[in-house]
Amino acid sequence: MFRGGFAGTLVLVVLGIIIFAAILAFLTGTDMPGDGSMFSTTGPRIVALIAILIVIAGPMLAAPRQIPALLRGLVLWTLFGLVLVGGYAYRAELEDAGRRIMGTLWPGTAIEDRAGTITVVRDRSRQYRIKARVNNASVDFVFDTGASAVTLTQDDARAAGIDPSTLSYTVPVSTANGQSTFALTTLDELRIGSLRLDDVRAFVARPDVLETSLLGLSALDRLKGWRVEGDRLILEP
């Protein structure tokens, strides 16, 4: 009777779903959809379970040699149903775990939750490196609250469509390498994940002054907030 692979599998799937739903309703006392009369009391639920067991036992009695295979298939599909229900029930926790794994495997990647909050994991150098886009060009930033403004290297400025040779380097700044002068400019657009900031005040450093562009306060001050929790930087748009 169940030699057809597809038909047998389909029957097992249906039976597994029916059993799981009925047992769940019986144990939790949850009414099934409808007018609620069928499963409104314990008695009708017991009758329904007996009817389901009869439906399941019918094929087994008709093909007794298939009983072990049927039982194994039924158990497997019931477990599969439990996994699906559990995954749905804990989907938020699973999404959070997935984001943490991604952030750990790819430091610098902006991981967003449903509220738009962005999390970046600290890399091996103990810095928060953030992958962003400036004027649609990819730029890797280092998070730096000591920088009063977003600061681009010469190469990153060129990639963003800014010609460093046309700028005026007149703003005095203090760097790790000593005193220097930067050029003031405005970025049309700065994106981190889905976060978008328009008309961002920024500096362009002189050649060979910076190794990496800096994500400074001219961008950070426009956020709702930011904080550090352990090895994670959290940006709230």
Short description, anyone?
By secondary structure, this protein is α+β, with helices and mostly antiparallel strands.
Which H/E pattern describes the elements? HHHHEEEEEHEEEEHEE
General form: rod-shaped
Give the radius of gyration: 30 Å
CATH topology descriptor of the largest domain = Cathepsin D, subunit A, domain 1
**Quaternary state, please?**
single chain
CATH H level of the largest domain: which superfamily? Acid Proteases
Total DSSP helices = 6
Largest sheet, in brief, is: 7 strands, mixed
Secondary structure: number of strands: 11
Low-confidence stretches: none
Kindly give the count of domains: 2
Q: Do you know the CATH architecture of the largest domain? A: Beta Barrel
In percent terms, what proportion of residues is strand? 25-35%
Overall structural class, as computed from helix and strand content, comes to: alpha+beta
